[in-house]
Amino acid sequence: MCIRDRTDLARAMPASDARKRSRRASDRARPKTARVDASDGANAAREDSEDELELAGGDAYGALLAALGANVARESDEDEDASSSDASERSGSETTTSSASDGEDEDSPPADARAGGSARASGAASDSSESDDESDARGEKSDDDDDDDDADDDASASAGEKLEEGGGMDEDEGALARHLRVGETLADAEAEALKTQRVSFPKTSAESVGKKGAWEGANGLEPPKTLDVPRFVNAKLRERWRTVTGSEGFASEDQARLYSMLAAYVDVQHGNRMLIPDQGPAGQQLNDETLDAVCLHVIDHVTRTRNRVMKNNESLAKKAKAGVKVIEDDLPRDQGFVRPTVLFLTPMRNIAGRAIMRLLELCPAAHGRNDAVNKLERIEEDFLAYDGSDSEDEVEDEHGNKKKKYKPFVPDDHKALFKGNTDDHFRLGLKLTKASVRLYVDFFGADIIFASPLGIVTALQDEKSAADFLSAIEILVIDHAHVIQMQNWAHVATLVDATNALPKDTRDCDIQRVHESHLNGHARHLRQTILLSAFQTPEINALFNRRCVNFEGKVRFRAPQRGVLGKLAVKTRQQFERVAMKASDVVDADDIRFKYFTKKVLPRIRENPEPGVVIFVSSYFDFVRVRNLLVAEDVSFAVNSEYTEPREAARARTLFADGRKRVLLLSERAHFYFRRRIKGAREICFYSLPEHRDFYPELVSYLAGSSAAASARATDAVAGAPVVGHVAGVVALFSKLDALKLERIVGCARARKMIDDDERPMFLFV
Fold it and tell me: Cys-Cys crosslink for 115: which of 38, 248, 290, 725, Cβ 3.0 to 4.6 Å?
């Protein structure tokens, strides 16, 4: 609502204003403490939208609806009001011990989401100048939030903000409206069937996938039809998309297909997510088509959800003004238990920062005026700034930003992934209004929550009721899931199970307007999960198939796998050995592999008189098992794991390169995080194949620097006779359970032959 001045506000909303003033007076009368009660924080976060969410009884209810109707009809200059609201924000700031939003971002569980949870010592900071966050933390409603929500209310009534059904939308209703309508009628038996159903995708061949990949639907589901243009919620978003991308349509066919899946509200698993290096200042990625499609879908969803509530509020206000009594059964079911509807998970701050910056770039509300986005500098500082502490390891780019100096052997994907702040413990709330975007807001007052799995799990551990802000999540985005798997994949399973659970505390929620599906405990069946990863793994597939139970169904993108054998920088002997397993041996798979390594591979390593054997292990549990075996067998070895101190890791590599240690035991996570150069390698033994396909040629390339291997090749070339002894080469163990890994290394066609051929347990590539 656009209110011209405080006098008009007092005249238009006598009952509502009196109620607010009474609540504020009671809040101020409370003793001030360093910690904020969870229920108080929740009430504060919801006060800024009580005009649109609260339906009280009696005279107050009628007065509120009458006030809404009177103010909806009021016309005023929107920009002037917005400017005055921000001026009020700057002049009316109050100090507090610590803001709730700061605590959320600075790696501490949200104070309002958990009753008295402790803040992280290293990250907690106070900011007395941020009045909007502080008001939320104390249970007070700031004037600027009043005006922002007023603008939202007025937007719902204005002609320029009416929903536009474009680009392939249904004639009668949009995809979101249809999704909610059908979800409300979901029966208990149907919901239970979704939890227990067996998910199966069509067994397509590598030829049918093609060069560009193919989308597959589960359980006979036909993938949604590809749209010609995005489904823009309004003209402003269409114009913003055209300004940013240069076209009203899609950048490519791949983006069009991905967005079409997202717009249909089915669960989506995209198995070809590539990280594109930054192409400009402030962490902006200019051609990340996958991220653009996801951000557009998120903005569209949040806007449609808010417009739906505003439209219903307007209708109720008109009925109240006309004297029409609204009974409980006629109230619209258009809300969740809390306001947040989107949860965006990323593994590290830098990736989250890139997603936030791109979302702000595409969001029309962020470009209405100069101060439309608050605390943008903090985003650049907290998420995009380079975190190197050693000045000798940093250089400045053309924009004056500091960045780490990488040695030439470090690949580009590693530089792009670990560029900037790599902290994996963070949470941030983002609120979208008609004319502005508010960052670092209270969770219960946010529309979108950006967080890491660790950041959410720590909040859940501090207070069980902290999961309440996840109770109404309608879109769950898990970006770079393959990177999260290198951290702790169990955190993802924990927070997915906690999402869409019935809240422990209803707070100031209006139960009469909560979705019927939420009240019945079926909210998780309406949640759309978007899984983005560079490749498929059994863990990612299990989460997608078992814990994503959207009634709309699920689709996945199968990318073509041609293998990486052609990328080897050194010509060497590669021996793949199949560990015999049956389908019933899934539980004992680790024991079977370990037994095979102990009896078949380790004796060859012990008999080898030459040092320089690198044993690569993908799982840390297997890493510990092999390490204990080498100790028991009295094998001279050194270790490089993700838990090895940098100095000890460097010493181990030196001892190995000098030949004083015959074996180097290397974990995949250590190679993932550090990409340390290994010298003196004569043989690479893959106890288990790497998840990341690029790791295979990288490790094999270490053989090129072996002086022993070079000498052997020279002798072979001169004498013209086969080399006697253990020369440079590769030994890789695999089983039927490693089909996905094997496809990424040798290609789909070769992998199928190697797994199905029961007669030959060994395959040689030269």
Answer: 38
Of the candidates 756, 46, 38, the residue with the CA atom closest to the CA atom of residue 441: 46
What are the structural domain ranges in the chain?
A: 6-160, 565-765
Q: Residues with Cβ < 8 Å from 58, sequence gap 6 or more?
A: none
Amino acid code (one letter) for 526: L
Please, what sign has the CA dihedral across residues 289, 226, 165, 524? negative
What is the third-level CATH fold of 565-765?
Answer: Rossmann fold (3.40.50)
| DSSP reduced 3-state for 729 | strand
Query: How many angstroms separate the CA atoms of 403 and 350, rounded?
Result: 13
Quote the tokens at residue 88. Answer: 């009020």
The answer for residues whose C-beta is within 8 angstroms of residue 42's C-beta and 6 or more apart is 112, 338, 444, 468, 505, 507, 508
Confidence of residue 497 (pLDDT cuts 50, 70, 90): very high
Q: Which of 719, 664, 659, 654 is nearest to 687 (CA)?
A: 664
**Using CA atoms, how far apart are residues 51 and 153, in angstroms rounded to an integer?**
9
Single pTM value for the model: 0.77
Element (H, E) at 765: strand 762-765
Size (the chain), residues = 766
Distance (Å) of CA 456 to CA 114, 117, 495? 12, 13, 7
pLDDT digits over 550-603, tens only? 999 999 998 888 899 988 888 889 999 999 988 778 889 999 999 999 999 999
Q: Which residues pair with 530 in a beta bridge?
A: 268, 477
